[in-house]
Amino acid sequence: MSAVLSTHGLVARYGDFQALYGVDTELGAGECVALIGANGAGKSTFLRAVMGLLPVAREMVRLDGEPVGGTAPDRMVQKGVAIVPEGRRLFTGMSVEDNLRVAIDQAARAAGKAGARAGGKGGWTLKRVHDLFPILAEKARTPVQSLSGGQQQMVAIGRALLCQPRVLLCDEISLGLAPKVIREIYAALPEIRAAGTAVILVEQDVGLAQSASDRLYCMLEGRVTLAGKSAEISRAQIGEAYFGVGHAVA
Amino acid sequence: MQWLDALIQGVLLGGMYAQYALGMALMFGVMRIVNISHGDLVILLSLIGISLASAFGLGPLPVLVALVPLAVLIGFVLQKTVLNRVVGNDPLPSLIATFGLSIALQNLMLQIWSANSRSLPGYGLESRSIEIGGIYIGLLPVIVLAVATGLTWGLDLMLKRTRFGRALRAAAADVEAAAMTGIDPRAVYALATAAAVGILGFAAVFQALRSTVAPADGPAQLIYAFEAVIIGGMGSVWGAFIGSMVLGISQAIGFRIDPGFGVLAGHIVFLFVLATRPQGLFGRA
Ligand SMILES: Nc1ncnc2c1ncn2[C@@H]1O[C@H](COP(=O)(O)OP(=O)(O)OP(=O)(O)O)[C@@H](O)[C@H]1O
Ligand SMILES: [Mg+2]
C-alpha cells in the first residue's frame, strides 16, 4: 500500500509534558482510518502534530513520502491536508458563507500561486457543500455563533472540504450531537471519500468509528495500543487496548 | 447657535481623530496590538512630508500621493521585521516593543529635524472657509472629515467584501483556525499594519496642514487615537469613527464652556465610557 500520509515515531510535547511517545501510523490513498482512545489519550495532539500546530521533527510526518513534519499549518493546507478541529473553531462574528469563503479564497490563492493546484482534486465548491448540507445554504447569512452545534459542525466540515484536501483530519465530529444529527453528518462521509479524499476520523464512539472506517488505531497514553482492520477487530481487543486492561506497561 | 457651532466644530475635529483611530482599531482588532508608536509614526510621516514639500516645492496633494505609499511600506516593514516577532496571545511583548520604538523614533526625529515646530504650507487652503447660515466652517476641516469618512467606509467595505478582508476577520476571530484554513497569519498581519500605517499617511498630511508638528508631539496624538478607539469599542471600524466624533464633540463643547476645559472634557468622557461601558459604545461585551 502506498501511504499518502504516514507518521514515524511521532513525538510531541506540551512544555515538559510528553503527550505522544513514538506514534507510527499510515493512511493509504482514499482510505478511511479511525483513531480511537479514551480522553487524554493523545488523539487531538496527534492531529495537531500532523497539521503542524505543534513542533515536531521533519522526518516524523510524511506526505506522499515527502518529510513534512513541523511545516506551518497554512502550508500543510496548501499541500492538501485539512482539518476539522476539535471544538470546531469557526470564525465567530462572520456569517456561515463568509466562514466557507475564507477557505475558498485561500484555495484559490494557493491554486493561483502554484499554477496547477498542489492540493487535492476534490473540486469542492460552495454549491457542492450546500448539496451535502442544505441547511448551510439556508443559513448562509447567519452568524455562525447562532447556529446549533450540528450546524456548526457542518460549517467546520464544509470549510475543511473547501480547502480541497487529499487528506481530511476530523476531530470528534460527533461530539455533543444528537444521534440524528450524527447520522446526517456521517452520511456525508461516502461522498467525501468518493472524491478520493483519505480521512482520519478521531472518534469517541467506538461503534461509529468501527463501522465508518476501513482500519482503526487505538491510542492509550500517547501510544498506539492496537491497529488493524476495523471489520476484524473484536470488542474485547478494543476494550483491552482502550483501557489498558492487562497491558503490561513496561 | 453657539452650541450648534461647537457641535459642528467637534464633528470636524472628530474627522482628524478618526484618521488616527482607524489604524489603531485595525491593528488592535486583528492582532491585539496596542501600537504605542502610533502617534510617533504620524509625526514621522508629517516631518517627511514637510521635508519633501520644501525640497521639491510640492503642494499638499503631491505630498499626500508620495506619503501614503511610503507609509504603507513603513507599516509592512515594521510588521515583518519587528511586530511579527512579538505578536501573540500575550499583549505585553508588543506593548513593550512599540513603546521602545516610540522612544527610538522620537530620538531619531529629534536628530534629523531638531525640536522645532514645522508645518506643511497649504497655499491658503488652511485659511479658507465657507459660511452656512452664519456659521463659518473651515474648508480644510471639511476635507479632513470627508477623507476620514471615505477611509472608514472603504476600510469597512474592504473588511466585509474582499478576500483580504475576510482573511483579516478570520485571523482576528481565531488565528490558529485561520492558519488551519490556509491563511498565513504573518502575511495577513503585515498587510494589516501596512493598511493601518498607510491611513496614517493621510493623517500626517492633514495634521501638518492644520497645525504644527514637532518630534515630541507623537504621544499626544496617540492618546486621542486611543481614547477614540476605546470610546467606540476596540477593533470596530465604525466604532472608531463614532468614538472619534464623540471625542471631538466633547472637546469642542468643553472648549466653549472654558477654553482650558476642552481637552480635559474629552478625557472625562473617555473615563466615563471606560467606567460604565468598558467594551465601548459599539463593542461586543
Ligand atoms: N495545551 C496543552 N498543554 C498541556 N497539556 C496538554 C495540552 N493539550 C493537551 N494536553 C495533554 O495532552 C494529553 C493528550 O491530550 P489530547 O487533547 O491529545 O487528548 P485526546 O485524546 O484528544 O482527548 P479527548 O478525547 O478528551 O479530546 C492529555 O494528557 C492532555 O492533558
Ligand atoms: Mg481531543
TrEMBL record, chain A:
Residue stretches making up the ABC transporter domain: 5-246
SUPFAM superfamilies in alphabetical order: P-loop containing nucleoside triphosphate hydrolases
GO biological process: L-amino acid transport
UniProt keyword Endoplasmic reticulum, yes or no: no
Keywords linked to the UniProt accession: Amino-acid transport, ATP-binding, Nucleotide-binding, Transport
Origin: domain of life: Bacteria
Pfam families: ABC_tran
Keyword tRNA processing part of the UniProt annotation: no
An example molecular function term from Gene Ontology annotations: ATP hydrolysis activity
Protein family (similarity comment): Belongs to the ABC transporter superfamily.
Listed name of the protein: Branched-chain amino acid transport system ATP-binding protein
Species annotation: Prosthecomicrobium pneumaticum
UniProtKB/TrEMBL annotation, chain B:
Record membrane topology: Multi-pass membrane protein
A Gene Ontology term for the protein's cellular component: plasma membrane
Protein name: Branched-chain amino acid transport system permease protein
Molecular function per GO: transmembrane transporter activity
Keywords per UniProt: Amino-acid transport, Cell membrane, Membrane, Transmembrane, Transmembrane helix, Transport
TM annotation in the entry: 6-29, 41-58, 95-115, 135-159, 188-209, 221-247, 259-276
Primary subcellular site in the record, as a coarse category: membrane
One Pfam family of this chain: BPD_transp_2
Family: Belongs to the binding-protein-dependent transport system permease family. LivHM subfamily.
Organism ancestry: Bacteria, Pseudomonadati, Pseudomonadota, Alphaproteobacteria, Hyphomicrobiales
GO biological process, one term: amino acid transport
Family matches, as InterPro entries: ABC_transp_permease, BCAA_transport_permease
